[in-house]
Design brief:
2 domains; single chain; 101 residues; two-stranded antiparallel ribbon
Length: 101
């Protein structure tokens, strides 16, 4: 004799319903070669605008912590200071090599 299924409690039903609604928001079903496939939905315009505003105002540390490296801008200030130190050193060497007259 098969085992009787237990009914879900109201809380379990609520959790399953919420999870299903979340999945439906995230994914969509399409047909490929006669078979159903689940793919992620494209971002809506509002989501895209919110993400862009967040990235524009984001701190580089926050971007790094959230693994959004493609949105990080290189810090050119560090490169310029290193080059300027090298140029200063070369200038001192050039002054030492020149004759005083």
């Amino acid at each position: 004799m098969p085992k009787a299924k237990k009914k879900l409690t109201p809380e379990q039903k609520r959790i399953r319903k919420a999870a299903k609604a979340e999945r439906q928001k995230k994914y969509q079903w399409i047909f490929i070669n006669g078979k159903q496939k689940r793919i992620k939905r494209q971002e809506s315009v509002e989501e895209y605008e919110q993400r862009e505003a967040l990235i524009r105002s984001a701190d580089p540390i926050w971007l790094h912590q959230n693994e959004l490296w493609e949105y990080m801008q290189p810090d050119d200030g560090l490169l310029l200071t290193e080059e300027s130190e090298d140029q200063d050193a070369l200038m001192f060497l050039d002054n030492d090599l020149k004759e005083p007259f």
